Amino acid sequence: MEHPIEIQFRRLSPRARIPARQTALASGFDLHACIDAPIEVGTMPVRVPCGVAIAAPADADVQIRPRSGLSAKGVMATLGTIDADYRGELMVTLYCLPGAAPFTVMDGDRVAQLVVSRLASVEWAEVADLGETERGAGGHGSTGVR
Q1: What average pLDDT does this structure show over 87-95?
Q2: Architecture in CATH of 8-118
Q3: 47, 97, 110, 125: most buried, per Cβ within 10 A?
Q4: Which pLDDT does position 123 carry in this prediction?
Q5: 81, 112 contact by CB (below 8 A)
Q6: Which residue has the higher pLDDT, 21 or 141?
């Protein structure tokens, strides 16, 4: 088994909650809002501070992802990548889909999840031909609707 990825963190507020799994088999660590006053979320994106900063190692892929419970209500979190050299506060960008009811974020609310995986070592190799496949250059929707 591979060794765990160590993510160093720093609380930027005494109220900040450390990202945590809600169940033993969850893949994501919930991120909590750390705010002084409620934030109204509508169709225009708003940034919600989480009150923590992290230092991820260079071999870690750290992503902010939506929570399914909020998505089911039409409250979307944008996908975000936390690069290994970023040291600022974790922020979650939220917005409501058109037609969804406005949403109020309160201090401590779970607003997104943080998913951590290992980055693959990649080397780019320029070639004259990529070879043929059945799909070829077929793009979005080229393999069918369902």
Answers
A1: 98
A2: Distorted Sandwich (2.70)
A3: 110
A4: 94
A5: no
A6: 21
Among 110, 96, 143, 98, smallest CA distance to 31 is for 110
The model's pTM is 0.85
Q: Could you give the CA distance from residue 8 to residue 57 in angstroms, rounded to a whole number?
A: 9
Cα dihedral 51, 24, 60, 77 sign: negative
- The tokens for 7 are 């993510």
Secondary structure of 67-131 in the HEC alphabet?
CHHHHCCCEEECCEEECCCCCCEEEEEEEECCCCCCEEECCCCEEEEEEEEECCCCCCCCCCCCC
Distance CA 54, CA 114 (A): 11
Residue type, 136: G
C-alpha 52 chain-centroid distance: 14
